[in-house]
Amino acid sequence: MFADDDLLPISALQHLQYCRRRCALVHIEGMWTENAMTAEGRLLHERVHQSNAENAEGIRTARGLRICSRELGLSGVADVVEFHRLADEASPPPSPLSSETTSGRGGSCVLPNTPGRWQPYPVEYKRGKRKAEQSYFVQLCAQALCLEEMLNTEVPTGALYHGQSRRRQPVTFDAALRNRTIELAAKLHDLIAAGNVPPPEYGPKCKFCSLLPQCVPKLPRSRSARDYVERSVREILEER
Predict the structure, then answer these.
(1) β-pair type (74-85, 8-9)
(2) In terms of Cα–Cα distance, which of 103, 83, 183, 181 is closest to 141?
(3) Confidence (pLDDT) at 56
């Protein structure tokens, strides 16, 4: 179990799945640069978190919900968590030993001052169009694992909402995705504890990265982006 001071942001898992170097530049060296895509994404998240709650029949919605998992050492803010009321309220939740669940927990939870039993359903907002981006799936699965630990319940599915298409992409938190998310959480803590920035590996994803000017993956260089910048500045000053 991780202490509060040792919790790392869920968003770092997305960076790690996307690119180890990007994750280290952001979360070890403290680098961040916005481009048009990241700015649009940030504004989208802000609008979602500030929106008024809209509770439809049988659904309760929480926006900007703070979540954490001390088992995985993660914390963050879920854009939206919907709680779907179970149709058959008389049916008890599955036993912790039931084969119907994958986490060993019951299949629903109760809400304060609200009758019935409810199924959590996390929804993560993304600015672009639908695509099979594994880093998005990992980020959403980490939110589900946090909710399972906090509510002691099963969260089998969630969704990604894509701003361009304004449609949801359902995501099932199967064993493979859960195992990958848990594995990445451990690797994230190892990466941050080591404090080393991995060397660049240029690939197709680099052209979409807002840190491309700082990372400069095509240039031979030291492992640290900060060392590279400082060395370049010294060389310029020495030439004057």
Answers:
(1) parallel
(2) 181
(3) 75
Output 49 or 16, whichever has higher pLDDT: 16
What residue ranges in 51-130 does DSSP mark as E strands? Answer: 59-69, 74-85, 109-111, 114-126
- Is-above-0.90 flag for pTM? no
CA-based angle 175:8:42, to the nearest 5? 90
Please state, in angstroms and rounded to a whole number, the distance separating the CA atoms of residues 28 and 188. 11
CA distance 133 to 169: 11
Q: What is the CATH number of the domain that holds 124?
A: 3.90.320
The pLDDT of residue 93 is 45
CA-based torsion, 15, 20, 26, 27: positive or negative: positive
Beta-carbon contacts of residue 96 (< 8 Å; ≥ 6 apart):
104, 105, 106
Domain that holds residue 111: 10-239
191-239 pLDDT, tens digit each? 999 999 999 888 888 988 888 888 888 776 555 666 667 766 776 777 6
Tell me how many domains the chain contains: 1
How many Cβ atoms sit within 10 Å of the Cβ of residue 70? 16
Q: CA-CA distance, 46 to 120, in Å (whole number)?
A: 22
Residue 90 has pLDDT above 70, yes or no: no
